[in-house]
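[Q] Does anyone have a clean structure-token version of this?
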Amino acid sequence: MNDGTVSVPDEQYERLAALAAARGVSPEMQLVRLIDDAYEGLDADAAHTESLPLGVCDADDEEALGGEE
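[A] Here you go.
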């Protein structure tokens, strides 16, 4: 990921700092984790579906849901 600057309003920074303190990390590290989690959510694909427990399917998998192939 590219290094950049992120501006956080004071009110949200206080919430970020409290969350970071509860997790034992710096506010900056907590923000990096939140951004990484957001990107991971955007990058979810079929590989994630393969890691689901047996009997659980991805809602987009029409064949598994009885739809047409």
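[Q] Thanks! Anything notable?
[A] The mean pLDDT is 75.
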